Amino acid sequence: MDSKKLEQYFHDAGWTVVHRDHRKARDGVFYPFDDLGLEAPSLAALRGFHRGIYRHQREAIERYLEGHNLAVTTPTASGKTMIFNVCALEELSVDPKARIAAVYPLKALAAEQTERWQKLVADSGINVKVGRIDGGVQSHERLSVLKESRVVVMTPDIIHAWLLSSIDMPAVREFLANLTLLIADEAHTYSGVFGSNSAFLFRRLLHATRKLGGDFNFIASSATMEDPQAHLHKLTGEHFDVIGADMDSSARSESQLLMVNPPRAKDLLSSVSDLITFAATQTSHQSITFVDSRKQTEYLASIVERRVSEEAESDEVNLGKLEELQVYPYRSGYEEDDRTRIQKKLALGSLKGVVSTSALEMGIDLPYLTLGILFGIPRSATSLFQRIGRVGRKQPGVVIIVNNGSVVSESVFRDPARLESLPLLRSALYLHNQRIQYIHAMCLAQQGGEDQAVSGNKTENDGKFTSPLPLPDDFAMLCEAERVGEVSTELQSMKAQAGDDPHHTFPLRNLDAQFKVQHQQGPNVFNLGSLSMSQLLREAYPGAVYYYQTKPYRIVRIRKQQRIVEARPEKRYFTAPLMLQPLILPNLSGDNVHQGHRYGSLLVIECALQVREAVCGFTERRGNNQLEFKYPLDPAHGLFQDAATFPNYSFTSGVIFTHPALSREGVRRSVLAEIIQEAFLMSLPFERQDISAGADKHRATRDPVTEGDKFICVYDQTYGSLRLTSHLMKKEVLRDVFTRARDIALNDANLELNEETVRVITELAECVEQEPSELGDAATSGNQAEQFVPIVSPGSIGINVHRDNEEFEVDGVFFSPQMQGLAYRGRPVSGRMKVEAANRRHSATTIQVPIDHIRPLNGESKIGYYSMETGEMFDQIPFDGEF
Length: 883
Hints:
Elements: H1 3-13, E1 16-23, E2 30-31, H2 40-45, E3 53-54, H3 55-65, E4 70-72, H4 80-94, E5 99-103, H5 107-124, E6 130-133, H6 139-148, E7 151-154, H7 156-163, H8 170-177, E8 179-184, H9 192-211, E9 217-221, H10 228-236, E10 241-243, E11 255-261, H11 268-282, E12 287-290, H12 294-303, H13 308-311, H14 320-325, E13 327-330, H15 336-348, E14 353-356, E15 371-375, H16 381-389, E16 397-402, H17 407-414, H18 434-445, H19 450-455, H20 473-484, H21 489-498, H22 502-505, E17 514-521, E18 524-532, H23 533-539, E19 545-548, E20 551-559, E21 564-569, E22 574-579, E23 583-587, E24 593-599, E25 602-622, E26 625-630, E27 646-658, H24 669-683, E28 691-697, E29 710-716, H25 731-747, H26 755-767, E30 773-774, E31 788-792, E32 797-800, E33 806-816, E34 821-828, H27 832-839, E35 847-850, E36 854-856, E37 863-867, E38 873-874
Parallel strand pairs: 4-9, 4-10, 5-7, 5-8, 6-7, 8-9, 11-16, 12-14, 12-15, 13-14, 15-16, 17-21
Antiparallel strand pairs: 1-11, 2-3, 17-18, 19-20, 20-21, 22-25, 23-25, 24-25, 24-30, 25-26, 25-27, 27-29, 28-29, 31-37, 32-33, 32-36, 33-34, 34-35, 37-38
């Protein structure tokens, strides 16, 4: 295993081994299968299994043949794929019309698994064609694949964007009517936005299939997670039998685990890159290094065996050494060709190392890896097991966990026994998010949509919307509202954005808009991946140096309306965004308060929020020099950002904590918020990108808070909110979180907290141990006379919800006959410099927008009232008789 050579390296290079753990090899225990009554193709596929099959494999096949949906949750490399294969062969053998959908959450995984399905069919001798349909297959080829193939490998994205949007085509309808088995691999990854979208996608698929007279069973595989049965029921609406680790009798290789502290004299990324280089050049290992961000993936791979300063002034980046070492980065967002090239090298074992995000935690068979390097401890035991399970499939392996200084790593490195008590991944599906629901209501129930297509009546539908399966009540009601055209004003902007094509307007992966990064050279345009708005703020903001396949590019301009990010080649510089503190604006009026508790002097309220994140510039490292650039940028340098900030506004929900101690002098409220966020993620391991935290002050008096009161907040990062943070309203969760937060504050020396801040977290932890009392209904502004319409006052700023929540400066309010209602006159803040330059030559330029397009910033925008009778504007609603 070369572990002694690695330990010698750690000793010589100043690393410290904190903990060792040795896992012994285990022999497999086999069971017969000749009494299961399998068809000839299945027996042919199993003829190499002379000793029999594992217990969990036999149990799964037996239950599937009895008609059950299956959830297989045994560990990595335990032979889950064989279960899929045999059950699929049984369906194909019994029914000559049967179709199988093998659904994989990643294109990379789907491509690799297609070859394995083709090998299975060849080995079994059955006359069946296997096809693959994903975003890399041209549209004109997809129908041919669907017609000719009885096993079709797909991604959820292609089912949403193509299969169900093409449901009026005979080949699609025939496929769905004859679909008997859907395989959902890596089901634990169906979480957050992607999982919540997929939950409605699977229901749409079941709805269409059953209305066409067919039906199908599920087989799902999943990593070890908390309550997989409940997760899959929420994901599909169906009931599942679980085949868990308690039935696993598979063999496993010997492995060694080392927990190490890096040398203090060196920066962390350089130390880890030196370790990767040593493993690639001085050992026989083939390694995989897991990091938690796309940016770290590119940076680590790019500095292996070199100092940044040595190449910083070079116009051309020489990647020869990197290719010689055969160490490559791998992350989401790559273009198809780049991803396929790396994937093939990995599968063949021709790479010495790969640096990856969680994208390689799952599925893709990497039999040659013998060394795993974990850059910090992942938040869930599920992720830890998956990463460790990638190593040592064919021979003994070594796993090295590097302390990266994160709160979780510091906590476990203080007490390595905590590694055994990391929480399992918990399902984060929220089926009542209205924005997510409406995407699928449009696809399913709009005029000419999927429901009418499978009901055989595409032009008119006088009957009420009905489904052959039980749908969430609020989703069924929304489908009916969409059918008759009575959706709420809040959703009409989504309807306008989607037009007649919601399938392509709204992808499954993110509610954020997706931006394409492009470099244009003459007439040629080179695609450099895609990013969401939140990724844009961290990786590709105006002026940033963005890395793609280890090559640096300067972000020149962001065209938000076109979803295009323009880039040009750059020297090997490194940038980091200068972020303003998040602006958090709680809405404590009326129905915007979801629930509230009082624990002594501590107020804990879950409510709707507006959150602004904003980049105001960036720092740039050029060799040993560090520079700072503030927005706006000078267009003379070829960089275009004419506003003082690059902001992103989102509507979400969260939990705010208000306590008198937070207003004391010297309390580091933002650090307290981060600690509580970390403790929450340790208690309930949701995805980090789905949760955020910050500190702010109340900007309006609303019972029970007063303007100026300081608060800290943990909130959902997802636009529209999945209400993941609502778990903090549960007494037992809140107490666990504050116990963990107090432990972090008292023991993590990296935080450098002052005494006052530690005292406050201790006080808050003591408060939550008290019994809570319910808060009364939040105060509202009262019934306003109908003739007075609340407005954003002239001179103030709101946000335009129909233009990516961009800031809008109001000049005036007026009644517009063309718009048949009130409208604002004003201008986008982002174009202010351009407008002012034009105004020096011409008259002032403004635009007009309907009043419901502009939302106030809670507590920040100045609110006035417009009289529909007189056209006057007032700061407050006048009392009767005042005019």
